[in-house]
C-alpha cells in the first residue's frame, strides 16, 4: 500500500527518476494529434473535416494557437484566443470562400393549367409536369 508520509529510500528515488528517461517520447505534431482526436469531435465538425481545405485551415489555426501558448485542454483559453483574433480570421476566410450566384430562371414560367410546351395539346399537369 502506498503511504504518502513514508520517506523514500535512495533506491526507490533512483528507480523513479530513471523510468521517465527510459521512455523518451517524441513530441506529437498538431496534425498527428488532430488525426488521433477526430473521432472524439462532434459529428458536425467531423463531417466538415473530411474536406481537405477545411482540415488544413483547422490545422493552421491550431498551429497559431500553439505558437501563442494556448492550452488546448482549456476551452476558456481557446475561446479567448478566438475572440482576440476574430477579425483577422474572418478576413482570411473571406478570400477563401467562393461567392454563390443566385439561379435565374430563363424564359416564361409555365403554369399547371397552361398547355404543355412539348406540343401534345394536353395540360402541363397531365403531360410533362405529371412527374413533378
> Helical percent range?
40-55%
- The residue ranges in which pLDDT falls below 50 over 5 or more consecutive positions are none
Following the backbone from N to C, one meets helices and strands in this order, namely HHHHHH
What Rg, in angstroms, do the CA atoms define? 31 Å
Question: What is the straight-line distance between the termini?
Answer: 76 Å
Structural class computed from helices and strand pairing? mainly alpha
Major sheet summary line: none
- Approximately what portion of the residues adopt beta-strand conformation? under 5%
How many E-type strands? 0
- Count of runs of 4 or more consecutive helical residues: 6
Mean pLDDT: 77
Quaternary form: single chain
Overall, the morphology is elongated
How would you explain this protein's 3D organization?
The chain has 132 residues and is mainly α. It is built from 6 helices and no strands. The termini are far apart. 0% of the residues are buried. The mean pLDDT is 77.
Summarize the structure.
This protein is mostly helical and 132 residues long. It has helices spanning 10-22, 30-37, 43-48, 52-67, 75-84, 86-96.
Amino acid at each position: 500500500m502506498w503511504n504518502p508520509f513514508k520517506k523514500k529510500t535512495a533506491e526507490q528515488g533512483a528507480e523513479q527518476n530513471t523510468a521517465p528517461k527510459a521512455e523518451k517520447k517524441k513530441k506529437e505534431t498538431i496534425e498527428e494529434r488532430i488525426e488521433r482526436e477526430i473521432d472524439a469531435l462532434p459529428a458536425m465538425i467531423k463531417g466538415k473535416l473530411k474536406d481537405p481545405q477545411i482540415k488544413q485551415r483547422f490545422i493552421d489555426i491550431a498551429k497559431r494557437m500553439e505558437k501563442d501558448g494556448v492550452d488546448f485542454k482549456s476551452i476558456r483559453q481557446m475561446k479567448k484566443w478566438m475572440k482576440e483574433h476574430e477579425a483577422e480570421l474572418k478576413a482570411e476566410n473571406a478570400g477563401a470562400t467562393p461567392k454563390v450566384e443566385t439561379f435565374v430562371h430563363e424564359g416564361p414560367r409555365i403554369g399547371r393549367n397552361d398547355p404543355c410546351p412539348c406540343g401534345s395539346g394536353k395540360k402541363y399537369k397531365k403531360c410533362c409536369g405529371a412527374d413533378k
